[in-house]
Structures are given as C-alpha cells and as structure tokens.
Design goal:
Helix content: 25-40%
Strand content: 25-35%
Structural class: alpha/beta
Shape: elongated
Number of helices: 12
CATH architecture of the largest domain: 3-Layer(aba) Sandwich
Number of strands: 19
Strand order of the largest sheet: 2-3-1-5-4
Distance between the termini: 60 Å
C-alpha cells in the first residue's frame, strides 16, 4: 500500500508547530520525533510500527530558518481512534531536542478529516443542485422562446416620412433601438425584441432626430468601420442615450440571439462612449511599452507604472478610477481592481477563463 493510499484512509490530522534553537532540516525534525518517542509505549504502538501498518500516515514538515533559529509546522495523519490519536499527539510534545539543538513542539489542534469531507460533500451537493435547477429552467426558457417565435412572426413596418423600416408599435415605445438597416430590424424581431427602427443610410434622417429628442434611444451598430462612421454622425446630430456594438468584425444582422443579448447588456452611456474614445488615444500611446496609465474619473492622469508593478501599485491607492495598460487582463488584476474601487480596466486582451463582475467595465484595445 502506497503512502497516498495510507493517508487517504486517515480519520484525523495532528497539527503542531515547533521551534528549534538552531538551524536544522526536515529529516532532523522527523528523526527527533521518531527517536525520542521510541520506547515510551509497547512496540506495536511506536510511530515506526504505526506508520508501517498505515495507522499513521506520512508526516509532513514545513520549516524555515533565520537568525540561527528554525520555525515550522507538523502535520501527521492518523487512522487510530480518538484516544490513541490524542496519545500520539501528546507524545510528540515530549520532544525537546532536534539534533544538538533545544526544541519545543506544541500541538495546536487535531482535526477530524471526516467532518471536512462531509462539509465538502454538502457544499458540492448544493452546487450540483443549483446548477441542475438553473439548467432545467434555462431549457424551459429556451423552449418557451422558440414556441413564442413561431407563434409571433412579426413583420417590420414603415415609419415616418422617410418610410424607414421599423418594428410595429414604435410610436408607443418609451425606449427604442436604432439600427443600421432593414436586415438588422428583422434579425432583432426574430430574436424577440421590439422598438427597432433602421437608419437605412449613413445620413441620419429627420425622423430619427425627432425620435432621439422624445425617447430613450440605444444605437445598436455593426462592429466595423461603417458602424464607427455612423456613430460619429449620430453623436453630432442625434445623440442617443446608450450605444451598443456588435462584436468587432460582425454585423447586427448576423448575430445570434445570445450575441444580441450580450451586446445590448453591454451597452454604455454616451458619456462613456466619449470617454472610451479618449482612452483609445491612451491605448495607442501605450502600445508596445508594457506600461500602464492610472487615471481619475475626469480623465486626468495619476501616474504611469510598469505593467509588472501594476497590481502592487493599485493595492497602495484608492483614487484610481481608470486603468489603461499594455498587457493581459488577468483574474488577479480584476480582483485587485474591484477591491480598490477601479471602475474601468482597459488592456490588450482578456486572459481565458477570467470572470468579470458587473461593477467593473472591461475593454480591450481593439474595441476602442
């Protein structure tokens, strides 16, 4: 039976700390424990015999030495019963020398491995149940959405004196979505959305200008150069309240329902759009430098630091609102940014698997 197999059968773990008045190594500590407890009990109850039979697992020692002194911790797994384990723990405390050096061992606690396992099982069972319920509810929602789409095949209508393509009932909507063309309106209708109207050209029609002054407008544009130009035009003559963009290189008419939902949920206020434009200039400035710029909410700069020092610098400050840096957005950086109250994080790209909380606005250079 291997050491791992023996240790996996343990019921308890003896946890102790030790201090040695001198410099020693791991094997010195283990030798002292085995040597100085030998002869205290019958042979079958000695540590060497207990370890051979698997009743005491591999003893782990962690230590560090400084200034002619060694401190460390001991972990000894046991499959003995409670009383026997307590006796072994007490025996370990009788060790008073390690090699030629004075030593002291103090048992801090004896933990029940089975309790930890039960807690882990309970926690995992709750996670599995939650995921199960969520998945079932999502499957039902998908079915309802599909049935609803088949039942309500809404067709676009023409709206305003320019006869722009729109969804039915636009005049009654308080919130509307302005898209680029007829195909965009149709795709959003298929995905179950309402309140869309198309620009149908680069120039912004008077109808759109009038709607912008009366309703809360979200401009939902393609993720290409054409979308960039239309956004500039809108900002000058019919500024919307929010802006949403298709992923870079994609058009709204080709997006899946999931992609549409994600894009609209990521919409930003026009103030933020203007700010992001300014951040784009900062990003260009930083390209290839492996540096970061720390900024306040008003765009003023607080300083410039190497990317390798960014996390530590953020931990020292609480006045940073925006970080733009030439590097990869990692989970550690996201956690630190949230902890220190950073609102916007802009980097070259996001590391795979990183989860971004809703209260943090994350952008990559290509989006700017």
């Amino acid at each position: 039976m291997g050491a791992k197999e023996k240790q996996s059968n343990s019921k308890y773990v003896i946890e102790a700390k030790f201090t040695v008045e001198g410099v020693v190594e791991r094997h010195d500590v283990i030798g002292a424990i085995f040597g100085q407890t030998e002869g205290l009990f019958p042979k079958e109850f000695e540590l060497r015999e207990l370890q051979k039979s698997g009743k005491i697992g591999r003893i782990d020692i962690d230590l560090k030495s400084a200034k002619d002194k060694t401190d460390g911790r001991i972990r000894a797994p046991s499959s003995l019963d409670r009383a026997e384990t307590a006796i072994i723990a007490a025996a370990m405390e009788t060790v008073d020398r390690v090699g030629p050096c004075d030593a002291k061992i103090s048992v801090e606690r004896i933990t029940d491995v089975r309790i930890d396992k039960r807690e882990q099982i309970l926690k995992r069972a709750k996670e599995l149940m939650r995921d199960w319920v969520v998945k079932d509810s999502q499957d039902i929602e998908k079915i309802l959405v599909e049935v609803s789409r088949e039942d309500k095949k809404v067709k676009p209508v023409q709206y305003g004196r320019e006869r722009l393509t729109a969804s039915p009932g636009l005049s009654k909507m308080k919130e509307i979505i302005v898209v680029e063309g007829r195909a965009d309106v149709i795709n959003l209708l298929k995905a179950g959305y309402k309140g869309m109207i198309a620009l149908e050209g680069v120039k912004v029609p008077k109808t759109i200008q009038n709607l912008t002054s009366k309703k809360e407008v979200t401009a939902f544009l393609d993720g290409d150069r054409g979308g960039d130009l239309i956004l500039k035009e809108l900002m000058q003559v019919a500024k919307p309240r929010y802006v949403a963009r298709a992923p870079r290189g994609k058009e709204v008419e080709d997006l899946t329902p999931a992609e549409i939902k994600a894009a609209l949920e990521s919409k930003v206020e026009v103030e933020r759009v203007e700010t992001l434009g300014a951040l784009g200039e900062v990003a260009k400035e930083l390209g290839g430098t492996l540096e970061a710029v720390l900024m306040k909410a008003d765009g003023s700069r607080l300083g410039r630091v190497p990317v390798m020092d960014l996390v530590e610098k953020l931990k020292e400050r609480s006045d940073v609102d925006v970080v733009v840096f030439d590097g990869i957005i990692t989970g550690r950086l996201v956690d630190t940014a949230v902890e220190r109250g950073v609102k916007t994080l802009v980097g070259d790209r996001v590391s795979e698997g990183v989860k971004v909380p809703q209260r943090l606005n994350v952008r990559v250079f290509k989006d700017l």
